[in-house]
Amino acid sequence: MNTSQLLAVDLVLSALAAGAWIAAAWLTASVRTDASSTASPNTDSKPDKSRGIDLALLLVGAAVALTVGRYALLPALVAGSWWFASERVTINVPLTAIPAAWAATAGVPFLLRRRNTGSKPVTGDPGRPGRSREWAVLAMVAAASSAVASLALTFILGPFPALWSLVVLLFMVAASVLIAKLALFTPQRVAREGAAARDDAAVRAGVSVRAGRRGGASPLGRRPTAAAAVAGLMICTALGSGVFAWLGSRSADGATIAAAVGHHGGTGAPVTDPTPVTSLVGDAPAAAVVRHYELTARVEQVTLPSGQTTEAWTYGSLPGPALEAQLGEVMEVVLNNRDVTAGVTLHWHGYDVPNAMDGVAGATQDAVMPGESMTYRFAAAQTGTYWYHTHQDSAEGVRKGLYGTFVVHHPASPRADTDIVVAGHDLSGLGLLGSSDRGSAHTAAPGSNVRVRLINTDSVQQRYLIQGTAFKAVAVDGTEVNQPQDVTGKLLRLGAGGRVDIAFTMPATPVTVRSDTAASAVVVIAPPGSPAADEAATPEDVVPDKAPAGVFTTTPVLDLLKYGKPRLEELDGGEKDGGGKAAKRPITREEVMVLDRQFRFVDGIPRYAFTVNGAAYPLVPSIEVAKGDTVKVTVVNRTSEPHPMHPHGHHVQVLSRNGVTPSGSPLILDTVDVLPGEVWELLLHADNPGIWMDHCHNLDHAAEGMMMLLKYQGVSSPFVHGGHSHNRPE
C-alpha cells in the first residue's frame, strides 16, 4: 500500500471513528430514558433495551478499534515522510487518544452493568441519577467531539495550524462536553429523573401516581438556557473564524504585491527604494538578429479534421503560430487582442525570461484587453523545447486554445533531418496531437535522423506511446539528457506543462506516436513512397485508428530519474571553479511546500480548495530570497491527485524523490510532476530577480488556491490583482 492509499485509509478510519463515537454517545445517553417504560405491563420493551445497550457496546468497541487502527498506520506514514504524519502524531494522537481511553473505561463498565441489571437503577439512590452514567455519556461526547475535531484538523486547519486555531478547536471540544453536561445533567433534570425512578418503583409496587408526574423526563428534551448560551458562543466563534478567512481570501482583489524586505523570513529592514518589475527587462545585444512575430488573440469557430466544430480562443491558429529562434537572437513578439473579453497575456513556459516579460497578469503586467496590445522582447538565451500560453484567466484560456509552441536551436548543433513538434491538448473534450484530432503524416527517409518534440499543453498527465522503432529521450524540459540509452517497450509520461524530446533513426517502416488523452489522434512518420506517405491516403488508411486496448495501463513508464548517465561535474548543480572542478554552492535556506486540500475561501467563494502549507492563494506565504541564494525546496503531495509544480523564471535540479537520488543524467526541470504520496527535494538557484509565480500547472488547481509567489528582496510590482484592470492570472 503506497502513501497516498495510507492517507485515504486514515481518512476513512477517522470518519468512521467519529460516526461510531457519536452514535455510541447518543445510545448511551438514551439508555436511562427508558426507565419509565418499565411501568407498562408489556415487557416486550426489555429485549429492545437490551439490543440498544448491545449496539452501544458494539459501537464503543468499533470506535476504539478504528481509533487504534489510525495509530497503527502512523509508522508507515512516517516511513514515507514525517510530513505525512506530522500533525497526526503531534496533535491528533493526544487529541483523540485521551478522550477515547476515557470513553472506553467509563462507558463499557456502565453499559455492561446496565445490561446486567436490566431495568433496575444503577445506583442505590433513586432520587439521584447514576454518576457512572453521567461520566460515561460525557466521556463519549468528549471522544465524539475530539474525533470530529480530528477531521476538522485534516479538512480545515491543515498541516501547519496556527496556535489560535488549535485553541479554538480545543474550545469547541470542551464546549461540546459542557453543553452535554448542561443539557443532560442539570439539577432540574436530576430531580425529574429521580421522580421518574420513584414513580416507576411505585408502579411496580401497584401504587397509583398522577399522570402529570409521568413523562417529560427525557434527557434529550429542550436545552436549558446555559446550554443554548454555550452553543451560541461556539457558533459565533466558528462564524467569526469563517468571516476572517473570507476577508483574507478577498484581500488580493485590487491589492498590490508587497515588496520582499528580507530574504530570511522577511525580517530585514524596510525597502525604501524597491525595484519595480517593469524595470527588469534584461539585456539584449544591440547587434543581435531580431526574430519578429505578431500574434492576434481572437475568438473563433474551429473545424477539426474529424469534422467536429467548436468555439476556441486562439492566437490565430490551433496551436498558435510555431515560434522559433537561434541561441543569441532576440525574440520580439507583439500580442494583439482582437476580441477575447477575458483578456490575454503571453507567458513563456519554462523559458527564463526577464521578469517584466513573464506575462503574468497582476504580477508583471496588466492583462491585454480587447483592442490593446503589448510587445514582449527578450534574448533567446537557452535552447530547447518550450511553449507559450496566456496567464490571464489561464485555466479557461489555455483549455480553449490560447497556447503555442516555442523552440530555440543551437547554431553549432546539427539539426535533425526531420524535426517535428507535437503539442498534446484536450480542446473541449476533443483530444489533439498537434492541430489534428485524427491523423497527421510526416515523411522521413530511412536512415535519417528524426526528432519529435512532445509538449503537454494540457492540465493533466499525458502518456505517449511510440511504436515502430526504439528511441532515445534526448531532452527533458529543454535540457539535454547526458548519454541517453535506447528505449523500447516503455511509455513516456509528461506532467502538465512538461516536455520530452525523442530521437531515433528512421526505419523502413512507419513510426507512430499516440497519447492516452487523444484516443483518436495519431502522428505517423513514414518513409517517402510508402502508403502512409501517399498524399491521397490518410494515416488512418495505413495504421489503426486506435491504440491497442489497455496498452496505456499495462505498459511500464520510463523513469527519468534512472535514465541516462550521471554528469559528475554537475551532480551538485554547482559552477566550475578555476581548476575546472565543480564548485559546490552552499544551501542558504530551506523551504517546505506541503500540497493538500482543505475547506477554504478562494476569492470569497467557499471551496474544497487546493492548498500550499494549509493556505490558499493569496494567503500562502511567499518564498522570499535574495539574488545568489541557493534554496532547497521539499515538495510533499498529501492529496490523491498529481501536482505539476511550476516555478516561473527558474529551473530546479532534482535532488531526490521519496528519498532516492537520481542515478541517471542530472534531471533539470521547470515543471515537477509530484504524484500522490511523493516527496521531492529540489535545488533552486535564485539568479533571476523578480516576483515570480510558483503554482500547480493543473490550472484548475491553481485557480482553486494552489499557487504562491517567489519574491526577490527589494522587488515590487505596481500591478494589482482584480480591480479595474481585471487581472486574474489563473
The helix fraction, in percent, is: 25-40%
What percentage of the residues does DSSP assign to strands (E)? 25-35%
Q: Helical segment tally?
A: 11
Specify the overall morphology.
globular
Query: What is the C-alpha radius of gyration, as a whole number of Å?
Result: 33 Å
The computed structural class is alpha+beta
What is the topology, as strand order, of the major beta sheet?
Answer: 11-10-13-18-15-16
Number of strands: 34
Regions with pLDDT < 50 over 5+ consecutive residues? 33-43, 121-129, 209-223, 571-583
Distance, first to last CA: 35 Å
Mean pLDDT across all amino acids: 86
Give the biggest sheet.
6 strands, mixed
Give structural notes:
By secondary structure, the protein is an alpha+beta fold. It contains eleven helices and 34 strands. The strands form eight sheets. Strands 11-10-13-18-15-16 form a six-stranded mixed beta sheet, with no helix packed on it. The chain has a six-stranded mixed beta sheet with strand order 24-23-26-31-28-29. A five-stranded mixed beta sheet has the order 12-20-19-14-17, with no helix packed on it. Strand 23 (589-602) and strand 24 form a beta hairpin. Helix 2 packs antiparallel against helix 3 (86-117), helix 4 packs antiparallel against helix 5 and helix 5 packs antiparallel against helix 7 (225-249). It starts with a helix and ends in a 14-residue tail after the last strand.
